[in-house]
Amino acid sequence: MALEVGIVGLPNSGKTTLFNALTHAGAEITAYASVTEKPNVGMATIADDRLGRLAALVGSQKVTPAAIRVVDVPGTGPQLLGNLRQVDALLAVVDGFSEGADPDGDLETLQLELLVADRDHVERRLERVEKQAKSGEPALRREVEELRRLLAHLESGSSLADWPDELPVELEPLTTKPVIAIVNGPAGVDCALEAELAELPDEEAAEFREGRRSALEEVVLRLKEALDLITFFTVGDKEARAWTLRRGQTALEAAESVHSDIARGFIRCEVIRWDDLLEHGSHAEAARHAKQRLEGKGYVVEDGDVLNVRFNV
Predict the structure, then answer these.
(1) What CA–CA distance (Å, rounded) separates 65 from 51?
(2) How far apart are CA 13 and CA 62, in angstroms?
(3) pLDDT score, position 291
(4) What are the C-alpha distances in Å from 39 to residues 28, 146, 149, 208?
(5) How far separated are the first and last CA of the chain, in Å rounded?
(6) 184 pLDDT more than 70
(7) Rounded distance, CA 223 to CA 47, Å?
(8) Regarding predicted confidence, which is higher, 33 or 108?
(9) Residue 246 to residue 269: CA distance in whole angstroms
């Protein structure tokens, strides 16, 4: 399952423009939002030049970069922000181009909106669980007491990120997620320009940038750092593909991200470093030089590993 990031921003901040630049989705840009509007959803690819070099080495017919699922909600009310409870991180877009723009103030406002949305969410869940707890079920009565303490914590102006105890899994709070601020303007990311460049052929866009890295690549790198992601590869003649994992995850979890059947029938995993594979020219030659090894389910995958999982369905 792809990692997910949500985009939030005040009206006219440029958040949907950033969404279009990241995903090429062409979502309609509107000045005002309605709770009846559906979120915009698209995929943003993670550029990695190692993938193309590996694909060229083995002659892969298809090259598939790693991707992040991006969700852009059309507003900041509690109901709309509720669509982002399952994302892994938030991109907070703030206005840095208008006359009198106040990016820091806008970011504070957005953080307050997230706090209000969490308070509303806890309040609604408390109302529901209080009704269920009338049955006398001890677990429900305990949850009522915990939710009351959480609500008091939020009403004091604190966020759930400050909660000293473990939070109920069901809450999926917004204020505990990593927030990456994106200033839309000369001092940050020119979202309109990046959206225009995203529509050009890669060669033309690269020529315009004169060798400079895309601002969108910087955004994705900041996301990778915030989520502590690593990249691993699967390489064959049919397809070379990049995948993401959280740092510290295992070969079994890597197999699960490729396909549940592969994880279920996991036997062993062939592992080789991407640069060792390039240096020796093939898996067979790398193995002859003792650069390829077999690992079990618990092997902790490292950034740049090329994996080939042996499995039996």
Answers:
(1) 7
(2) 37
(3) 95
(4) 11, 32, 32, 32
(5) 20
(6) yes
(7) 13
(8) 108
(9) 18
Separation CA 63–CA 211 (nearest Å): 23
H helices then E strands: how many in the chain? Answer: 12, 11
In this structure, which amino acid lies at residue 135?
S
| Token pair recorded at residue 222 | 């900041």
If we measure between CA atoms, which residue out of 176, 185, 137 comes closest to residue 154? Answer: 176
Look at residue 309 and tell me whether its pLDDT is greater than 70: yes
Instruction: Report which residue type is found at 196.
Output: E
Q: pTM of this prediction?
A: 0.85
Residue with tokens 């009351």: 148
Please write the tens of the pLDDT for every residue from 52-69.
999 999 999 999 999 999
Which domains are seen in the chain, by residue range?
3-45+68-100+177-226 (3.40.50.300), 103-171 (1.10.150), 248-311 (3.10.20.30)
CB 254 within 8 A of CB 243: yes
The pLDDT value given to residue 33 = 54
CB-CB neighbours of 29 under 10 Å: 15
d(CA 174, CA 154): 12
Task: Give the angle 164-168-171 at the CA atoms, nearest 5°.
Answer: 110
Residues 121, 115: Cα–Cα separation, whole Å: 10
Do residues 114 and 85 make contact, with C-beta atoms less than 8 angstroms apart?
A: no
**When comparing pLDDT for 170 and 231, which is higher?**
231
Q: How far is Cα 212 from Cα 185, in angstroms, rounded to an integer?
A: 17
Tell whether the model's pLDDT for residue 168 goes beyond 90.
no
* Residue 51, both tokens: 């993938």
Residue 311 confidence (pLDDT) above 90? yes
Rounded mean pLDDT, 265-292: 95
Is pLDDT at 28 greater than 80 in this prediction?
no
In whole angstroms, what is the distance from residue 62 CA to residue 237 CA? Answer: 8
3-class state of residue 296 by DSSP: coil
Do 277 and 235 form a contact (C-beta atoms < 8 A)? yes
